[in-house]
Amino acid sequence: MTDTAPHKRKALQTPADLALLGAPPLFAVPRHVNRPHVPDKAAFDARINAAWERRWFTNDGPLVKELEQRLCEYLDVPHCVLMSNATAALDLTMKALGVKGEVILPAYTFISTANILHIAGLTPVFCDVDASMALDPAACAARIGPRTGAVVATHVWGSPCDIDALQEVCDAHDIPLLFDAAHAFGARHKAHRLGRFGRAEVFSLHATKAFHTCEGGLVTTCDSTLAKTLRRMRNFGFDPMGAVECAGLNAKMSEMHAAMGLGNLDQIDATRALAQDVHRAYARGLADLPGFILKLPPAAEENNHHYVVGRINAAEFGMDRDRLHAVLVAENVLARRYFRPGGHRCPPYIALTKAAGLELPQTDALCNDVLVLPGGAAADPADVALICALIRFAHDNAAAIAPPQG
Ligand SMILES: Cc1ncc(COP(=O)(O)O)c(C=O)c1O
Question: What CATH topology corresponds to 15-32+268-335+374-401?
Fold first, then answer.
């Protein structure tokens, strides 16, 4: 990719300048929500060359071991088990814990959790979220019953969910609490980085995440038995001597993936600072814009700033989220409407939702009004200014852009 410059040289003047209404797009090349951050190339090459020389590419190699060790230090957690992705990691964690029956999860999260449960023969029990967009502890408590086998809560958009309240609910019923920490690498809860809470936390290290290994997953836990079991389960159930100790899959991380992770970990603090600058640039660019409510972490919270998330109040903004999304996409700003339509409304689970007469108003509202903008360390601050100007222009000219009625 070479052409990263915008197409339109002159400022937007009339609605006819919008790509949605036929003009050329603002950006020649799409701007994605979370373009992968890349580490220092020479350091990456050196690690790959060393693996090449060793001819050791997978099966618990030295780079995977080094990354696990450094992650234990960075996250200050006793056990880090790297896997091929977060979906396999959460699946194996639930199997390792022997979870059965129903599992409570927020409906406002990525669909992978519900799918893991469904495929494993467990029943996803969708629950509403609260104003923080994360699993509502009171709603969670209300859905616990005799068949509840676990709760899986998401630290959505990098903010820790209400860990203490959820732990209290789960302790009262002696149910394991797991966290989907896919969005939240590096975030803190009180004095500690996420990673040591619940029975285990599962991070996605997918290329679009704040810290990544191209594809990858990470289970962190203070439970040494669980960590040992997961090490077996990610490698077909083999113990270090090659005897099959339990049922397992192939969910190993390769040395090439670990090399990417080590390079990214070298730069993690600088990456976070870049992402924070981008987040702040959006906060400045969208300040006081009626109907665009940017979700900003509380000042005291250490967030990774990887996600730029807004809610659109259609009445105040002048058009609804979907119309604004169409305006942006036409300009090659590939904003995303996560996590519509909500797990409880996705095809495999609709029947369950209907049978239970489930109403999840907070989730439905978020699915209708959340918009995620291109952010993170790899976003260009010059783009942020153009995107904010575009959103302001859409608001100022909403009447001319809104779709025809009837
Ligand atoms: C909240 C959440 N959980 C889980 C996942 C799945 O992660 P992976 O792609 O590593 O399996 C994602 C991926 O985007 C996610 O956003």
Answer: Aspartate Aminotransferase, domain 1 (3.90.1150)
216 CA closest ligand 1 atom index: 10
Question: Fold identical between 15-32+268-335+374-401 and 41-266?
Answer: no
Q: Where are the domains of the chain?
A: 15-32+268-335+374-401, 41-266
Residue written as token pair 């951050």: 37
Burial of 182 (0-12, 13-18, 19+ CB in 10 A): buried
Q: Which amino acid makes up residue 184?
A: A
**Which of 84, 110, 201, 338 gets mutated to test ligand 1 (max ligand atoms within 8 A of its CB)?**
110
- pLDDT digit string (tens) for 84-123? 999 999 999 999 999 999 999 999 999 999 999 999 999 9
Q: Tell me, in angstroms, the distance from the centre of ligand 1 to residue 87's CA.
A: 7
Instruction: Tell me if residue 218 falls in helix, strand or coil.
Output: strand
- The CATH number that domain 41-266 falls under is 3.40.640.10
Residue nearest to atom 8 of ligand 1 (CA): 86
pLDDT, tens only, 277-290? 999 999 999 999 99
